[in-house]
Write a structure and sequence with these properties.
Strand content: 5-15%
Number of strands: 10
Strand order of the largest sheet: 1-2
CATH architecture of the largest domain: Alpha-Beta Complex
Number of domains: 4
Radius of gyration: 39 Å
Distance between the termini: 96 Å
CATH topology of the largest domain: Homing Intron 3 (I-Ppo) Encoded Endonuclease, Chain A
Largest sheet: 2 strands, antiparallel
Oligomer: single chain
Number of helices: 11
CATH class of the largest domain: Alpha Beta
Order of helices and strands: HEEEEHEEHHEEHHEEHHHHH
Shape: elongated
Structural class: alpha+beta
Length: 258
Amino acid sequence: MSTTEEQANRFIWRANLDAPNGCWDWLGYRDSHGYPRLSRVRVHRALFELLYGPIGPLGLDHLCRNRGCINPDHLEPTTDRTNVLRGDGPAAVNARKTHCKKGHPFSPENTYTYHRRDGRRPFRTCRICQRRKRKHILPVNRYTLDALTKRLADASPCAVCDYWNLRGPKRRTCSSACARAWPYLRYALDPAYREAHQLVAARWIAQNPSKVTRSQHESALRALAGERSQRGRWMTKTGKPREFATQFGIRGPKRYIG
């Protein structure tokens, strides 16, 4: 018996030759992917190269779809791409699809391939679905000339930055970021707005001495003592200035600034 036959028998005697479909099921150790191993050697690859010669950088595809089989007749040298596309993994299942999940065909005219900048594999998508998705996010009336003309006619300068406000006449700012900055800017520029907040804050501090320091409580009492003579004329029962509360919409201590 030659050396090649002895080495081949070393692998074969550890396999079940009576398995269905003509497979030679490996009875020894298998790795986490289900391939047979003997020490650090993949048994099916070593046996195939012993009988048919080296296959170089190519891989072996199990035509029987049984990873534990070492029968050389069930193995075929292929590239990794061909091996993956023949399998049942997510990449193979998606590659065999002829229609998207909405039923649109993956024709050359309806298929767009995205090439990623980070070097990962490209992926394809349906053009019809992408157009409908963009229309759902940005309604079609935003693209019409009449809608754009109406928005420009109602535009006004933003109260915070120098951009135009296209959000409608009821909005004073052009974006949510400017809307968050608008109360602070108004507090710094509008003395009446600042005075209203200071009086409401002083009233709340005077009623909740346990939540503030002693110096803050004394300062609030002194501020309210100076306005006590006019309290009945322009203060509400809750301590909020009647005129300023109506004008500026002050709702409670969470709106205080300063």
